[in-house]
Structure formats: structure tokens, C-alpha cells
Write a structure and sequence with these properties.
Rossmann fold; alpha/beta; about 55% helix; homodimer; 2 domains
Chain lengths: ~300, ~300
């Protein structure tokens, strides 16, 4: 654990694996790390598949490294049987920053049951935070509510779009604007960029209310060439400054509350026993299928027995 | 409730709304419906955005109606801030089958917290089942684990792909083959169809084990023109026959166990109080952010207090 705090990549990797495996030692490790967390700026990056999240993350890592900052990257893969394909991108990144002792890159599958992502990702962020990272980039595929929730509880959330994929009106409708602290139109050398940027800016302007409120900037990037990545970094920095200590604390309190709630549910779920193993649950399922009871009544019976 | 069981579309719509709103009356309604469920063949349809799920569902409804069967359609929208767009498709469908008293079409948002989908969708299926539907089509966008789980617990699960989007090897890797009872290559008038079908069939053949086991068929469709939809329907029917009463019961027991487990967690979650409201949770979040405790210890404290 002390090796991880001194930044040993192997030690950090081992601790992230503990999180992924929900290892019994995790509780002790987290207790030991607790006093050493809070130093990292947690930046969430999200967007639909194909907008260039991996490439943008890699380019950001390069920029942070040029400043001499230690960077952690946590790429969360929702492991959908119907998407897949994050792994190749990960290997490409690995090779680019391999051997740099101040870059930790880790991809995590949010496999297993529902809610797996929501409790595991913040804990992996804690590990990278306690390992002395100045910045932790939390990259998630923005296709489900859960991924957006994770990104949305970062200190700063960057939402990536590509030209034509999300025009301003669509974005406004879909609630992107509420989640994004920084909007990026990547692949900005493609047709339709101007229109997408204009519409996003229009939507941001329409949504503005309070004086002094953060005005979500719209940044153009071509991550493959590095174009615009410095501007993106500046926008992220400005958002961090805008938050101040008070704003930062507010976000982190919300994140901590969600994290604790997630672990409470995880603990209670373990008590219930799970779909596969629990005899009482299986017996109640028989009653439900045979129409002798309904799922709510069965759930009430189980909850009463947990007492 | 009796109006819903007699098939009044308005009454059915009201009951599905109760489910969506998690209305207090839901428990009573579900208890009353329990003895009348189990008659419908629940068919899950899933696939990545853009493969043509809505069009295929509409075409299937037409075919079922030609047979004189009563059909319920439940389209679950994961309401990602980063996708959106299911609504238009829904309106198109509405217009095509509007006025047919034996077709219930309802789209449901899986909005709200994690796991919202997993408990609400099966209950909406129960409503349509108890309303006398012969078939309930449960359509989900296959982008997250939760959607796949829902589709995977249907009696018969249809996974849609489009040419080039998922070749056989990718599909095998991504775990599609384990979920799918029927594979559909939609948009089969496009280039690359033969290759995709061939690779999927190859992957299915490789994965086969036990004698007499179901061999997942690969069906070509052009849902926009109706081409292949009858073959798809036949494949779905054959799967239902293959399951038999015993196989069907096995799947339904698993589904019921998951449903009950989900409701138990929902009940326990309500006890915890939720992120926004609970004072005790907020106080623990302060301790976590200040590094005085870690999330696991905080969760343990809360669980102990739930006693």
C-alpha cells in the first residue's frame, strides 16, 4: 500500500485489481488510503461510441505530462455484449505512454450485475488519487444512465460529440447540457463542424440563468493530430478555477454520498443472497410464477426476514 | 383493473403508468393481477442503436395481428442524455397500429436511478400479460448490461445486427451468442450481408455442445419492406416449441427471482433514504470527503443503523 502511495505502477495496478475483484482486503485498503485522497482533479470524459474518447484522452495525457503532472486514466468499459471494442483502443494508449512512471492507465470492465460500475469506479479513482495523481481522467462510454452518472460526479465533466452526431437541439433535449462542464466537438476537420458548434453554443446561451454561473465552453478538437487539445486543457483548468474550493467540495460531497449509498446497497444485496444461490428467493420465485403471490409481496416477505 | 384484464387500452395504459411512476397503488394492482399472468409469450428484442429494432418490432406486430393474436409492445428507452431519439420511432409505430384494440404499444423510460429498468420493465410486462396479450414484445436498446439482462430473461430473446456492424468473431467475443435465441441480420439488402450471416452461423456452429440443444438460427430481414419477417416469426415460434413447458418454466423462475431481488433492493434503497435527502448519509459523506473515514466504513455504519 505504501508502494502504491509512492507511485509504484505495479502496486497501483494491484490495488485497482482488488477493487475490480471486490476482494475482501478492499475494506482495509480503502480505510488506509482515506486520509490521502482529495488531491487529484477528477475529470470525467464521456460521449457516444465513435466520437474519439480514447484518442482525446491520450492527447490530454500527453499535454498533462508536458506540464510535469502525474496522470491516472481509468477507462470504464460497460462491457455490453452488443458493443465491445474498447480493448484495442486501450492497447494503443498503453503503447504510447508505456514506460512513463507518472502515467497509470487502467481499463475496468463494469461487468457483473447492475450498479457494478457505480460502486467500483469511484473506488478505483480513490486508488489513483491516493497514489499521488494530480489528475484522474475517468473515461466512460456515454450510452447508459450509469456511465453518465459516474461522469457527472467528476469534478469536471467533459462531453465529447462529433460533427453531425449531436446538433444543438438534440443535445439540449437529451440533457447533455446539464451534465457537461466542457463540450468538445472532436473530429473538427469534418463537414458540419461549424453548424454543430454554432448550435451547441446557441443551446448553451439559451440555457443560461444566474449571473456569474459557469458558461459551458464549446471546444473544437482534432484529437488525432492534437489540434485544440491545449484549448481543451485550458477549458478544464478554467472550470476547476471557477468551482473554487467551495464548488469542488459540493461536488465531492455528492459523489461521496452516492458512493456510500452504492456500497450500502451492495452490502444489502449480498445479504439477500443473489439470484442464483438463495433457497428462500428460489421458493418465492416459484410462488410468483405460479401466480400464488406477486413480486412485491414476495419482496416484502424477504425484507421482513432480513430484519 | 377488470377493464384492463378485458383489454381496455386506456385501462392498460393507466396500469403501465402506475408502474412507471412507482405509484403506491402498484402493490395492490400487482397482487390482483398475479393469478392472471403467465399466458403471454415474452419475446425480447435487442440490438445496438440503428439496427432497425423499431421497424422490426412494427413488422412483427403486423404479422402477429394477421394471425389474430393480441400483441403488447413495451419499448424501453434507456434515456441516455447522450442518445435519445427513440421517440420519433415510437410515434411512427403508434400511427401504424393506432386504433387497433388488440395492440398495446407503450414506451417506457428507464429514467431515474440505476436499476430502475430492471424492476419496472418486468412489471409492465406483467400488466400486458394479464391484459390478455398472446405475445409481449419487449424492445430494449442493447447498449448496456441492464438492457441485455432484461432482454436475456425473456422467454425468447432476439438479437438484431446489421451487416458489417457485428461480424461473427466480434459477436462471439462480445457474448451475443450466449444471449441470443434468434439472431437477425436486418437491412439484409445491404453489402456485407452474406459475410455477416456466414460468420454468425460459423460462430454459432463452433459454440454448440450438447445434443438436442437449441441451435440459434440466423435470419435475414429487411424490416422496412417486410422481407424475412415471417421467417423471423417462425424462428421465434420454433424456439418457444423447443423450450417446452419445462424450459419455459426454468426461464420464468429465473426472471421471477431477479424481479423479486430487484424489488427487495428497491425497498432497502428507499430505507437508506437516497442521496439527496438523508441527513445521516450527508454527514457520513462529509467524513469521507475529509478523509476521516472511507466509503466502506461509512456504508457499514449505515447498514448497522438500518438494523
Amino acid at each position: 500500500m505504501s508502494a502504491a502511495r509512492e507511485g509504484s505502477p505495479r502496486a497501483v495496478a494491484r490495488l485497482v485489481s482488488l477493487v475490480e475483484d471486490a476482494h475482501p482486503a478492499l475494506r482495509e485498503v480503502m480505510a488506509a488510503l482515506a486520509p490521502h485522497t482529495g488531491g487529484a482533479h477528477v475529470v470525467g470524459l464521456t460521449g457516444a461510441p465513435g466520437v474519439g474518447k480514447s484518442t482525446t484522452t491520450t492527447a490530454l495525457v500527453t499535454s498533462y505530462r508536458e506540464r510535469g503532472q502525474r496522470v491516472g486514466v481509468l477507462a470504464v468499459d460497460p462491457t455490453s455484449p452488443l458493443s465491445g471494442g474498447a480493448l484495442l483502443g486501450d492497447r494503443v494508449r498503453m503503447s504510447e505512454h508505456a514506460g512513463d512512471p507518472d502515467v497509470f492507465i487502467r481499463s475496468m470492465a463494469s461487468r457483473g450485475h447492475l450498479g457494478g460500475l457505480s460502486w467500483a469506479a469511484p473506488q478505483a479513482v480513490r486508488v489513483l488519487d491516493a497514489a499521488g495523481c494530480d489528475v484522474v481522467l475517468l473515461e466512460t462510454v456515454g450510452v447508459g444512465q450509469s456511465e453518465v452518472e459516474v461522469a457527472g460526479t467528476a469534478d469536471t465533466t467533459v462531453v465529447l460529440l462529433a460533427p453531425g452526431m449531436g446538433d444543438g437541439i438534440q443535445a439540449a433535449k437529451a440533457g447533455i447540457l446539464e451534465v457537461a462542464d466542457v463540450l468538445v466537438v472532436n473530429k473538427a476537420d469534418r463537414d458540419g463542424t461549424d453548424r454543430t458548434v454554432r448550435e451547441l453554443r446557441g443551446a448553451v446561451a439559451m440555457g443560461e440563468r444566474a449571473a456569474g454561473a459557469w458558461r459551458t465552453p464549446v471546444v473544437r478538437t482534432v484529437a488525432t493530430s492534437g489540434h485544440g487539445v491545449d484549448e481543451l486543457l485550458e477549458a478544464v483548468d478554467r472550470h476547476r478555477e471557477h468551482l473554487g474550493e467551495r464548488g469542488l467540495r459540493e461536488r465531492r460531497l455528492l459523489r461521496a454520498a452516492r458512493e456510500v449509498e452504492g456500497l450500502v446497497l451492495e452490502t444489502l444485496r449480498a445479504r439477500v443472497g443473489g439470484v442464483a444461490g438463495d433457497e428462500r428467493l428460489d421458493a418465492l420465485a416459484v410462488d410468483v410464477v405460479d401466480g400464488r403471490t406477486d413480486p412485491w409481496a414476495a419482496a416484502d416477505a424477504l425484507v421482513a426476514e432480513l430484519g
